[in-house]
Design brief:
This protein has helices spanning about 5-10, 75-80, 105-125, 190-225, 235-265, 310-315, and strands spanning about 40-45, 50-55, 60-65, 85-90, 130-135, 145-155, 160, 165-170, 180, 185-190, 270, 275-280, 285-290, 295-300, 305-310, 320-325, 330-345, 350-355, 365-375, 385, 390-395, 400-405, 425, 440. The strands form six sheets. Strands 6-15-18-17-16-19 form a six-stranded antiparallel barrel. A four-stranded antiparallel sheet has the order 3-2-1-4. The chain has a four-stranded antiparallel sheet with strand order 7-14-12-9, with no helix packed on it. About 25% of the residues lie in helices and about 35% in strands. Strand 16 (about 320-325) and strand 17 form a beta hairpin.
């Protein structure tokens, strides 16, 4: 790449011969601070990375370059000059007559300033380091947007079992923690009074039957005698009325018997459904009256998931994908059972009830109801802001390109209309600017 005096062994401007020891046109020592300048028409300037030399002709303002190999003082300058420092160095040589020998000192210093600025620009351009980043295909970075709502597994029914009749508690058949089946006896009350009431009602029914039988016979005789005029019409009517009243009393007595039977059955308190006993208030020997709490049951044969839903996502639930309950690393598939149409004024949420699509979780399990509302989104850490716009950096060869995402919102995943194979910068993007050179490491 030798050009100018180093290759031609003469000054390209004044055409005068130049010595190997930096003595072409007359030169002088000029330190980096510009001190001790001597009148000189041509300046040798150098920069590092790579080290280049410039032979500047003040007479024609032409800039010529030569390689560092053509300058004997290259090694010494390279070792003594810090990185990114512009330095000037010239050597001594004999005077040579020519057009470059008589330029004024003021013009020489003006051109020296221009040369320094040009050298600084070339230095910054040549020494710009590539920024190390990690890239990966867009398709491998996409995620699905999931919505989560706090939830808990609740029983379909939870009941406090109370006494329906008065009686002393004879026995508590099931205690706390017991699992019971529908119809199992939980508590037995003293049944003597109820049994006596039933027996009395049955006896009264028998008495009524006897009275009805007698009244029916008297009515039949009266009907026979009315043809012979041995009884009056009023007497016959009275006999018919007596029989009708007795029959009505008998029907009422039958109801009394059924009531007594029901009261007797209620001295045996049974489970209304498959359940677990979770609390006990009944004590043997205590008097139970109607309404007295005895046991608390939680239904185990039916359970649901109760969740507080953000109203913004409630409308997506009927078509939700991968609806499930998550708790402590476990997952259960769900189906939407009911969604309340009212928003709670205090919590600003809607109640949702979900049924298990398979084996259910234990009652009381707390966790989150999770479902997907969108797919193929860029994660938040990959999105950066440049010039007031949110977007991502992609690798265009070894150059960084900023791609704006018009629909992106700060702090939320966003969709990107880019080919799946696009190389996305996934590490190091925070310090990039559009057009930066990249040192790429593939994921």
């Amino acid at each position: 790449m030798a050009a100018g005096f180093a290759a031609a062994r003469s000054c390209r401007i004044c055409q005068q011969p130049e010595l190997r020891g930096l003595a072409g046109c007359r030169t002088a020592n000029v330190d980096p601070n510009g001190n001790n300048p001597q009148a000189t028409p041509d300046i040798l300037a150098a920069t590092r990375s790579p080290l280049m030399f410039f032979h500047f002709s003040t007479s024609t303002e032409r800039l010529l370059t030569v390689s560092s190999d053509d300058w004997p003082g290259y090694n010494a300058v390279q070792q003594s000059t810090p990185p990114a420092t512009i330095f000037l160095k010239t050597g001594y040589g004999p005077r040579v007559a020519g057009p470059c020998a008589s330029l004024p000192k003021k013009k020489t210093m003006k051109l020296l300033t221009r040369l320094i600025l040009l050298s600084a620009f070339l230095h910054s351009t040549l020494t710009a380091a590539a920024i190390p980043v990690t890239v990966g295909p867009l398709a491998e970075q996409l995620l699905d947007l999931e919505v989560r709502a706090p939830a808990m597994v609740v029983p379909a029914n939870q009941a406090v079992i109370t006494a329906q009749v008065t009686g002393l508690i004879e026995a508590v058949e099931q205690d706390v923690g017991a699992s019971v089946k529908q119809g199992d006896v939980l508590i037995r009350l003293d049944s003597d009074d109820a049994q006596l009431a039933l027996d009395r009602a049955r006896a009264e029914l028998q008495a009524l039957d006897a009275q009805i039988e007698q009244a029916a016979a008297r009515l039949k005789r009266g009907e026979d005698l009315i043809e012979s005029s041995f009884i009056s019409d009023d007497d016959l009517l009275d006999r018919r009325t007596t029989l009708a009243v007795l029959r009505a009393n008998r029907a009422a007595q039958e109801l009394g018997i059924r009531s007594a039977q029901l009261a007797l059955s209620r001295t045996r308190i049974s489970a209304p459904y498959d359940a677990t006993v979770v609390a006990r208030a009944a004590q043997v020997g205590s008097l139970a009256q109607p309404g007295t709490p005895l046991l608390t049951l939680v239904q185990t044969s039916a359970r649901e998931v109760d969740a507080d839903i953000d109203p913004r996502y409630a409308a997506d639930l009927p078509n939700a994908q991968d609806l499930r309950l998550e708790s402590q690393g476990r997952s259960w598939p769900l189906g939407l059972a009911r969604l309340a149409g009212v928003i709670d004024a205090a919590a600003r949420t809607q109640k949702g009830r979900f049924s298990f699509a398979g084996p259910p979780a234990a009652i009381g399990t707390s966790g989150e109801v999770v479902w997907k509302v969108a797919t193929g989104l860029l994660p938040v850490p990959l999105i950066v802001q440049r010039d007031g716009q949110l977007g991502v950096f992609v690798a265009d060869g070894t150059t960084a390109r900023f791609v704006a995402l018009p629909d992106a919102q700060e702090g939320r995943p966003a969709s990107a209309d880019l080919p799946p194979a696009t190389l996305l910068v996934i590490r190091g993007q925070s310090r990039l600017q559009d057009g930066d050179k990249l040192q790429i490491d593939r994921l």
